[in-house]
Known about the structure:
- This protein has 116 residues and is of the alpha+beta class.
- The chain has a single domain, classed as GTP Cyclohydrolase I, domain 2 (2-Layer Sandwich).
- 33% of the residues lie in helices and 43% in strands.
- The protein has helices at residues 19-22, 39-44, 53-65, 72-86; strands at 2-15, 26-36, 68-69, 91-102, 105-115.
- 21% of the residues are buried.
- Residues 4-114 form the Dihydroneopterin aldolase/epimerase domain.
Amino acid sequence: MDIIFIEELRAETWIGIYPREKAMSQTVEISLHIGVSTASAGASDDIRDTVDYAVVVERLRADLSGSHFNLLEKLTEHIATWLLENFAAQWVRVSVAKLGMMPGVKRVGVIIERSV
């Protein structure tokens, strides 16, 4: 299996359980590892034969901008399922982090792996 990756993608979403978090959207940092075969694209040199990472980024940002999640775990599961269902991925590894949530902590987050 080959892996297409997108690292340190920043997206806006509504995430959190505290009143201050529900009052405004937050920026989350997302890293994706998408398990697919790239053999066809390697042979054809045609974007239609692979996962177009520009499309992934654009559609994911649009999806998340209108969504609300209480927990990072739910947000991360949502992204993993979304990738598996929409991009013919066989396996995904998704990392989602909230930035600057606590003094002295750069990021907190969740990493999951899922497959079909």
